[in-house]
Specification:
Elements (H helix, E strand, L loop, with lengths): L4 E8 L4 H10 L7 E8 L15 E6 L7 H8 L8 E4 L10 H15 L13 E3 L6 E3 L23 H16 L11
Parallel strand pairs: 1-2, 1-4, 2-3
Antiparallel strand pairs: 5-6
Length: 189
């Protein structure tokens, strides 16, 4: 099974772009299967040539005055796609967990084996605070209790559809989830 992942990163004057690239690469279980497409809109771009994995980064630097928003930047990045099997779209201030790619592909494989329809894996990144040197990051959990966010919370995002279709899809998903045993991160490595 091929596991090539293309990571799309639009960035607008973000000081964490370089940290995001390094975090994704360093924490990947299969570094040879990771490639990046970056559209940086900044006065001074990152030094891509200083990266040990520069051959994995397709990079475009644009004057921020020319910026037309994140969707425009994402569309520009798509020209960098090659023969990758998976497409991961992230923000330019994302910090990755160890073996994130193996974990993601493992969940994808499980979903493919257990669901009848197409699917999209989506999430909302947790807030974090970097130190001044950008060498360490602390997850910000200060407001989670105030907002009622618990470890067992389920977040649902729905479109505008007929209520009967939404209810049927939600019921089916909850039935499947209640029977689900999470795969371990290293099962497919």
């Amino acid at each position: 099974m091929s596991m090539k992942i293309f990571i799309s990163i639009p960035s607008y004057q973000d000081p964490l772009l370089l940290e995001t690239l390094c975090s994704a690469y360093q924490n990947a279980a299969n570094k040879d299967n990771i490639s990046f497409g970056v559209c940086e809109q900044a006065n001074h771009g990152i030094d891509v040539e200083s990266l040990k994995f520069q051959d994995r980064v397709e990079y475009e630097l644009l004057d921020p005055v020319m910026a037309k928003g994140p969707c425009w930047a994402r569309a520009r990045i798509q020209k960098f796609l090659n023969d990758e099997d998976y497409f991961l779209q992230i923000d330019s201030h994302t910090i990755f967990a160890k073996n994130w790619d193996a974990i993601l592909l493992n969940y994808y494989s499980w979903l493919e084996d257990n669901l009848e329809n197409n699917f999209v894996i989506t999430g909302y990144p947790r807030e974090f605070k970097p130190n001044k040197e950008l060498t360490s990051f602390e997850l910000n959990t200060t407001h989670k209790d105030t907002l009622g966010i618990t470890s067992g919370m389920l977040r649902i995002s729905m479109g505008l559809e007929d209520i009967t279709d939404l209810w049927a899809d939600l019921t089916k998903a909850l039935d499947q989830a209640s029977a689900w045993t999470p795969p371990t991160a290293l099962e497919h490595m």
